[in-house]
From TrEMBL:
Presence of keyword Aminoacyl-tRNA synthetase: yes
Domain of life: Eukaryota
Protein name per Swiss-Prot or TrEMBL: proline--tRNA ligase
InterPro entries the UniProt entry points to: aa-tRNA-synt_IIb (IPR002314), aa-tRNA-synth_II (IPR006195), aa-tRNA-synth_II/BPL/LPL (IPR045864), Anticodon-bd (IPR004154), Anticodon-bd_dom_sf (IPR036621), Pro-tRNA-ligase_IIa (IPR002316), Pro-tRNA-ligase_IIa_arc-type (IPR004499), Pro-tRNA_ligase_II_C (IPR016061)
Pfam families documented for this protein: HGTP_anticodon (PF03129), ProRS-C_1 (PF09180), tRNA-synt_2b (PF00587)
Residue ranges occupied by any Aminoacyl-transfer RNA synthetases class-II family profile domain in the UniProt entry: 51-300
Enzyme Commission (EC) number: 6.1.1.15
Native source organism of the sequence: Urochloa decumbens
Reactions this protein catalyses: tRNA(Pro) + L-proline + ATP = L-prolyl-tRNA(Pro) + AMP + diphosphate
Amino acid sequence: MSSGNDGSEKKKNKKKETKLGMTYKKDASFGDWYSEAVVHGEMIEYYGVSGCYILMPSAMRVWNVLKDFFDSDMKKLKVNPYYFPLFVTESALQKEKDHIEGFAPEVAWVTKSGQSDLESPIAIRPTSETIMYPYFSKWIRSYRDLPFRCYQWCNVVRWEFSDPTPFIRSREFLWQEGHSAFATKEEADEEVLQVLELYRRIYEEFLAVPVIKGRKSEMEKFAGGLYTTSVEAFIPNTGRGIQAATSHCLGQKFADMFGIKFEDDKGSRSNVWQNSWGYSTRSIGVMVMTHGDDKGLVLPPRVAPLQVIVIPVSYSKDADMASIKGACESTVCTLSQSGIRAELDDRTNHSPGWKYSHWEMKGVPLRIEIGPKDVANKQVRIVRRDNGAKVDVPLTNLVDEVTVLLDGIQENLFRTATERREACIQVIHTWDEFIAALNNKRLILAPWCDEEKVEKDVKVRTRGEGELGAAKTLCTPFDQPEFPQGTMCFASGKPAKTWSFWGRSY
């Protein structure tokens, strides 16, 4: 029995429901769109400290999928999990000045305990080399202790910067960091690329984001390291590259500073060769930027916390809602038992249309609608989030069809993102071509003489070009195009030594 207020109550609810949805368009106002997408998609909540964010269940579940994959491969590679403390003494942090110089402006310090000043300030880790390596020198004595390979999941704090962006640039973030020590450089070199390939897989196979593997310039490498490799993503909407993950060969410099030596089988002592490598929750932001659209998030099925949402649909008051709801519950049960992450939205205070928009905004890959005709025909209607395609599927083929569709969405997202990225790559040979491509938001592949002085000069010369900031090298790709004899550097006119990607970056 309905009350006399039902009509007015429905009008109120309907009025509220019209407010659901995205306000900003991705192409028109990317920054506002992104902030809205991660909040409306319930991935983050803003916090009282600028640059710090609450990671909501949707974000943490994506992170946990990546974590599970990485943990599994670490176990296969016999890399051991550790956890090192959050704090580092000032003396330890200053021990390797060249290394910490790159982090110095970002280090947060604890100077008080209650109302009392600490005898010496204590830093909150911006990275863990100076925390870990004094203990490596205790644990590594002989060649029998090598290789030593460890990793941890933790948070780090990097404080001083402007324009915080959820996931992409925050004062505190979660990451995985690995550290290893070897007897020879050859072993270290091998691991650098081994781990970099795992990072490529995280981005391309799980997040459906295409990346470029390459080596960072001397100017952009990890402070104090021998060389840095990275996987680089690109956001076409902003024309900016983004360092997605890094794998560094540290050489022997840290070993020399921290006394990490080993005795070989002949009794002579040598410094170990070291690596460090890591990726962070920035990966979630890159995924959102790459796939999201004007309706909100678009999540790749392999990492989506919820892969299928089932929604009951009635087109009239006379519909048998009990049988519709029963069919929905049975569908969720069937999918869940097969390992597909599915849930039922049976809320009665929202219309089916409102629910469609809600789950589209959260990026759920597939929506299943079940109405009276579907129950009668023993079928369901499935709608794809990535392209909106609809298909009616018999219940007898439900699990197989859903599995095929999820795989197809994963492949389509990666293919589409790759096509968009490839369309932004522009090969240039001259400075004028470089400037034109830069201001056209391109990912620029240019012949370069590989000199630090020239790279610094490019930064200076592009600082005033437009409103987006200076350009820099993103990486020198391992996959090098053909290099015609006599090719000259686009910036200096000197003989070019390599092809490198250039552009603006996050």
